[in-house]
Amino acid sequence: NVASVDSQGKVTAIGEGNAIITATTVNGLKTATAVIQVMIPVVPVTGITLNETSGNLKVGETKTITETVVPANATNKNVIWNSSDDTIAKVDNRGEVTAVAPGLATITVTTVAGQLTETYIATVNPTVTISGTTSVGQMLKADTTAPTGATITYQWQRSKADGTFEDIAGATSSTYTLIPADATQFIRVIVTANDSGYSATATSDPTIAITLTAAAIEGVGTTTTVLQLGETTTRTATTIEAGTKTWLSSDATVATINETTGVINALAAGSTTISYISTNGGKNSVHLTVYPEAAVVNPAYTGISTTSGPILPTLTGSNNSATVRTFSIGHFFGITGSFNHNDGSLNITSINPNLINSIEIFYVGNDNNGVVIEKGSVTVIINS
Question: What is the 3-state secondary structure (H, E, C) of the chain?
Answer without folding.
Answer: CCEEECCCCCEEECCCEEEEEEEECCCCCCEEEEEEEECCCCCCCCEEEECCCEEEECCCCEEECCEEEECCCCCCCCEEEEECCCCCEEECCCCEEEECCCEEEEEEEEECCCCCEEEEEEEECCEEEEEECCECCCEEEEEEECCCCCEEEEEEEEECCCCCEEECCCCCCCEEECCHHHCCCCEEEEEEEEECCEEEEEECCCCCCCECCCCCCECCCCCCCCEECCCCCEEECECCCCCCEEEEECCCCCEEECCCCCEEEECCCEEEEEEEEECCCCEEEEEEEEECCCEECCEECCCCCCCCCCECCEECCCCCCCCEEEEEEEEEECEEEEECCCCCCEEEEEECCCCCEEEEEEEEEECCCCCEEEEEEEEEEECC
